[in-house]
Amino acid sequence: MAEIYTLTVTELKQALADKSLSAKEIWAAFNARIDAADPHIGAFLTRTEQSPPTLEGPLSGIPFAIKDAFCTNGVRTTAGSRILDNFVPPYTATVVERLEQAGMASLGKLSMDEFAMGNANEHCAFGPVCNPQDLARVPGGSSGGSAAAVAAGMAPFALGSDTGGSVRQPAAFCGVVGFKPTYGLLSRYGLIAYASSLDTPGLLTRSVKDAQLLLPVLSGHDRHDSTSLAEAPAPARSVKGLRVGLPKEYFGEGVAQEVKVAVLRAAQTLRDLGAEVSDCSLPMTKYALPVYYLLACAEASSNLARYDGVRYGMRAEGADWSDMMTKTRTTYFGEEVKRRIMLGTFVLSAGYYDAYYLKAQKGRTLIRAEFDRAFEAYDLLLTPTSPVTAWERGSITDPISAYAADICTVSVNLGGLSAASIPCGRDSLGLPVGAQLIGNRMSDNTVLAAAAALEEAIGWDYTPVCGGKA
Q1: Are 155 and 107 in contact (CB under 8 A)?
Q2: What pLDDT score does 366 carry?
Q3: I need a surface site. Which of 1, 97, 198, 433 has the fewest CB within 10 A?
């Protein structure tokens, strides 16, 4: 039998059902793998359970790991920031609760870019995360710890969050599956906010089948989240006969040639499976990055105002209330978070609101309308997940260059759409390339069905690695 830590959620479920494995054996295997691999990768910020899960449910005995943006009752939750270094929530996020009710239990909390602001996991206050495919390279972000943990076999599944690509891009860099559901399908209750109109809990797995298994467990209306949806996604459609668009704007300047080749090869595979694949255009794509960063930073400025040293989190003492708050935020926020707060505060300020924030909202409306028109002609869109493969740690220091790497993912969040990233090949350095399938709102099941068919045809090897070695 294969090493236990190499098994997927679906395979573990079957092994428990036929009694070829026990929960105790599974638990011990994953904890041993964390002990062996995480000193090289740095994905875990906090280890939690010391014994196998005992709750009865359809997924009893299967462990998982949690991005440290999700609140966990009684377990330190930092969002990758020093300002929450001592924060222990009094409640648990709904998506975590639903997994626990299904019988799963957490192995621990995973590293992330501070407050989910970043795409390399180099902005965590507690140190960077290494990519299991190549320890000298970034795992992507902001859910870099989640993607790395799954790719290295330290967890069969991990929760992430996706505000502008933070599940899909690290999935592409680490060679795993990343799924961002329709906005509202999964409850945001207990997810520490970055940009509330964009934040979406997401899944990182080592097979699309696992995402298909877990999505119904996680989804459904939550009375604690007014944006959560009551209805279920539309039924899945067969890949045969699906109309798939290739937006030319996602294959243009800035997209590495090896990435284009791998994704276009995936497009041909979809044709071979019976899909109707043709070129299309989404001209508003060129506005997606400025629209996204203006809106996300504006919402971040508002959401992060609560970290003032008064109610919870770290505090730096000062001469008076104003001095204390200034010193607290100056001392405990990282540079990238400060940058985005300042940008967001600026665009919301008097005299600039109409010129920046209001114009960005209008741009979002136009981007969303363009997607609506595209989905009248197409069932799915296929694009690269990232214009490039994983870069070396520390090699990108210019924020604008880093933001540009989000060009393929941010539009999905602006539209509230569903999207999955699956590995579709490797570049000349052996680094994974991700292909992104985008579907309209509530087409989650069709996105996953097409991704599963494509995954099977590609035959990607998901064997966990650490430093590129099994």
Answers
A1: yes
A2: 98
A3: 1
| pLDDT at site 50 | 67
Whole-angstrom Cα distance, residue 175 to residue 147?
Answer: 8
**Any idea how long the chain is?**
470
Tokens standing for residue 101: 């009710």
pLDDT score for 435: 98
Cis geometry, peptide bond prior to residue 281 (ω within 30 degrees of 0): no
Q: State the catalytic residue, choosing from 111, 161, 166, 386.
A: 166
Pick the closest to residue 425 from 259, 253, 179 (CA basis).
259
Q: Enumerate residues 6+ apart whose C-beta is below 8 A from 292.
A: 164, 198, 406, 410, 411, 413, 414
Could you give the CA distance from residue 233 to residue 358 in angstroms, rounded to a whole number?
31
- pLDDT for 121 equals 97
Provide the 3-class DSSP secondary structure of residue 218.
helix
User: In the prediction, which pLDDT does 1 show?
Assistant: 61
List the catalytic residue out of 13, 67, 109, 180. 67
Is 67 catalytic? The answer is: yes
Type of residue at 289: L
* Residues 414, 292 contacting (CB under 8 angstroms): yes
Average model confidence (pLDDT) across the chain? 96
DSSP 3-state of 369: helix
443 noted as active-site residue: no
What 3-state DSSP class applies to 162?
strand
Residues whose CB falls within 8 Å of the CB of residue 366, separated by 6 or more in sequence, listed in order: 284, 287
Residue 7 tokens read as 């098994």
Q: In angstroms, rounded to a whole number, what is the distance separating the alpha carbons of residues 14 and 2?
A: 14
* pLDDT value at residue 137: 98
Domain 4-237+446-458 falls under CATH 2.60.290.11: no
pLDDT at 404 over 80: yes
Say how far apart CA 409 and CA 164 lie, in whole Å. Answer: 6
H helices within 152-244, ranges in order? Answer: 168-174, 208-218
Pairing between β-strand 276-280 and β-strand 418-426 as defined by DSSP bridges: unpaired
pLDDT-derived band at 56 (thresholds 50, 70, 90) equals: confident
pLDDT at residue number 55 = 72
Identity of residue 410: V
Q: Using the structure block, give the residue that is written with the tokens 């009893």.
A: 60
Percent with pLDDT over 70 in the chain: 99
Q: What is the pLDDT of residue 155?
A: 98
Mean pLDDT of 340-366: 96
The answer to whether 167 and 179 are in contact (CB under 8 A) is yes
Reduce the secondary structure of 223-262 to three states and give it as a string.
Answer: CCCCCCCCCCCCCCCCCCCCEEEEEHHHHCCCCCHHHHHH
CA dist 362 and 216 (Å) reads 34
Catalytic residue among 81, 106, 111, 142: 142
What is the average pLDDT across 368-378? 98
